[in-house]
Amino acid sequence: MQDAITAVINSSDVQGKYLDSSALDKLKAYFATGELRVRAATTISANAATIVKEAVAKSLLYSDITRPGGNMYTTRRYAACIRDLDYYLRYATYAMLAGDPSILDERVLNGLKETYNSLGVPIGATVQAIQAMKEVTAGLVGPDAGKEMGVYFDYISSGLS
Ligand SMILES: CCC1=C(C)/C(=C/C2=NC(=C\c3[nH]c(/C=C4\NC(=O)[C@H](C)[C@H]4CC)c(C)c3CCC(=O)O)/C(CCC(=O)O)=C2C)NC1=O
């Protein structure tokens, strides 16, 4: 896993240089948003179950997916879906705190599409639910932190697509 600081340092180290002004600007931007990130993470962790529930209500409930024959039908599969959404929310929050998406590649997206395809989990509907979490989260944490979280929800969505 990488974060905004190690990303900048690693790329300077590869070139055997001190941080140049663009690297320093990236660090400054990251440090300047530190408080925002920590506050957003606190709000998200206190409201995680609500975020998932509202996102499901916005995107999946009362669709064919929750009816007999749908992939969320049966309590076991419904619970697996909710659990997956909670994973996405938690890992997007980690990535937002780190200011870097690498944790998503390593711990979430690696092999996920293949798993979904082999189980018949619909990817389009999953992406819709992730996008619904993005909206619900932005509503809770405000536009600036919401935009930052949006980067990582979108990263998961495009990694799945
Ligand atoms: C932390 C990283 C991580 C991820 C991301 C993860 C995902 C993940 N989701 C799974 C299943 C599943 N995922 C879903 C999800 C859904 N079905 C729908 O129709 C909805 C659109 C969607 C929810 C948004 C369902 C229903 C299953 C169970 C499928 C089955 O067993 O038939 C499985 C198969 C094993 C299991 O059932 O636990 C994995 C590995 N596991 C991990 O360890």
Which descriptors apply to this entry?
single chain; 161 residues; mainly alpha; elongated; binds phycocyanobilin
Task: Give the SSE layout.
Elements: H1 4-14, H2 21-32, H3 34-46, H4 48-59, H5 75-98, H6 102-109, H7 112-119, H8 123-141, H9 143-160
Helix pairs in contact: 1-2, 3-5, 4-5, 4-8, 5-6, 5-9, 6-9, 8-9
The protein binds phycocyanobilin.
Phycocyanobilin is lined by residues 60, 65, 71-72, 77, 80-81, 84-85, 87, 107-108, 112, 115, 119, 121-122, 125-126, 129.
Strand content: under 5%
Largest sheet: none
N-to-C terminal Cα separation, in Å? Answer: 22 Å
Low-confidence stretches: none
Principal-axes geometry comes out as elongated
Mean pLDDT: 97
SSE-based structural type? mainly alpha
Your description of this structure?
The protein has 161 residues and is an all-alpha fold. The chain is 78% helix and 0% strand. It contains nine helices and no strands. It has helices at 4-14, 21-32, 34-46, 48-59, 75-98, 102-109, 112-119, 123-141, 143-160. The longest helix has 24 residues, at 75-98. The two termini are 22 Å apart. Phycocyanobilin binds at residues 60, 65, 71-72, 77, 80-81, 84-85, 87, 107-108, 112, 115, 119, 121-122, 125-126, 129.
